[in-house]
Each structure stands twice: as C-alpha cells, then as structure tokens.
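Following the same procedure, sequence and fold were stored together, as reproduced here.

>
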Amino acid sequence: MAEKIESQAAAARKFVKAHGPSRAVVENIGRAGARVVLVGADGALGDVVVPSPESGEALVEAVENLELAQWVAETVQAAKIGAEHRRRMAGL
C-alpha cells in the first residue's frame, strides 16, 4: 500500500470478519484525509480514517470481502443504526 494504512486495513479486516461481507464508502474529509465508512452484512457501522481518498480506495482493494460503494439507497438501507449509535453521535 502506497501510504501507511496497515493498521486501518487490519481494523477493516476485523470488521469484515465480525460482520460479514461489507461495503465501504470513501468520503474525502479534506486535509485530514478520508473516512472509510464500513457497512456490514448485518447492518453494523464502522469507520477508519486514512491519509487520502486514494489510500481509502487502496484499503478497500486490499481487504477481502470489502466492496467499494456509494451512498445510494441500497447502501443506506443496509445500514442499521441503533439507539446506542444515535446517542454516541449526538454527543453529551
């Protein structure tokens, strides 16, 4: 992998192992890099931050059973957002 994303790839592999074949949406977050949002086959959500959108796409290619996706209806409907996740996103 061009940029150092070994730890992020390991986290993505762990997610896929726990939640089955998954989708990944790469979102550019500017100077901070890119966020790779993971949506598991069971609807679980996860994410990792990488140095660039290109490294996000490389991460997806490097992880077996992880498919590059976009935020289209099929991906959105696959995500199951529970009450605990909503509370965490709302903050204190």
